[in-house]
Amino acid sequence: MGRSSNRGGKTTPPNQPVVLVGMMGAGKSTVGRRLARRLALPFTDADLEIEKAAGCSISDIFEFHGEASFREGERRVIRRILEGPPKVISTGGGAFIDPETHKRIRDKALSVWLRADLDTLVKRVKRNNARPLLKEGDPRTILEGLMTERDPTYAKADVVVDSGDTAIEKVVDAIVAAIESRHDGQQ
Ligand code: S3P
After folding, report:
1. Which residues pair with 45 in a beta bridge?
2. b/e per residue, 100-111, with b = 16+ CB within 10 A?
3. What is the pLDDT of residue 9?
4. Cα–Cα distance, 142 to 122 (Å, whole number)
5. Which of 51, 95, 105, 106 lies 20 to 30 Å from 17, alpha-carbon distance?
6. Per-residue pLDDT averaged across 56-78, rounded?
7. What is the pLDDT of residues 95-119, one digit of tens each?
8. pLDDT (tens digit per residue) in 142-160
9. Among 47, 71, 113, 115, which is best to mutate for testing ligand 1, by the most ligand atoms less than 8 A from CB?
10. For the whole model, what pTM was predicted?
């Protein structure tokens, strides 16, 4: 039986960090929190850690220091949180696209692409208007462009799970099952 098995109702966590990647609005933080609870692992939201380390909001980092500075902080923070005991980590949409962060996640963690269709993303990002990249024009057009650019990189994640309009617990079930079958397939 795999390390992340939930057969018989018990879920044993994997022995490496589980990192959720994917577009803004895919539900990485919400799903990550629930997945962590299911796997009995701590949960870390990389964007919140970046804000804590910088002492200001992501919007302010973009506005006063620029995206390059944000990515630098993101690289540093994700490198740090990947160390230590296994945990579930949600990352900002651009993290897995940054070559250095991408490699580090691939080397140290089990990556999960939370994939969602454009309509779902557009609907979800409307709930939070603090995302600097979406303030530069029509959110739908921006998201569509970013999906075209980024999806081939997200597709390199170890596991791909659709989050669409599915209930959160079902998404968590799918991730646990995917992790488990991946592990079983390696034995
Ligand atoms: C970004 C996504 C955001 C945040 C920053 C940049 C991106 O995180 O990291 O605004 O490049 O897609 P969420 O994916 O949690 O919204």
Report:
1. 90
2. ebbebbeeebbb
3. 57
4. 10
5. 51
6. 97
7. 999 999 999 999 999 999 999 999 9
8. 999 999 999 999 999 999 9
9. 47
10. 0.93
Give the chain's end-to-end CA distance (angstroms, integer).
9
Q: How far is the CA of 91 from the centre of ligand 1 (A)?
A: 8
Q: Give the distance (Å) from ligand 1 centre to CA of residue 182.
A: 28
The token pair that represents 123 in the structure block: 């609907």
Q: Measured between alpha carbons, how far is 154 from 21 in angstroms, rounded to an integer?
A: 7
Atom 16 in ligand 1: which residue has the minimum CA distance? 24
Question: How many other CB atoms are there within 10 angstroms of residue 168's CB atom?
Answer: 14
- Ligand 1 pocket: which of 19, 20, 24, 69 to mutate (most atoms <8 Å of CB)? 24
Query: What is the bridge-based pairing of β-strands 88-90 and 43-45?
Result: parallel
Mean pLDDT of the chain: 92
One-letter amino acid at 138 equals D
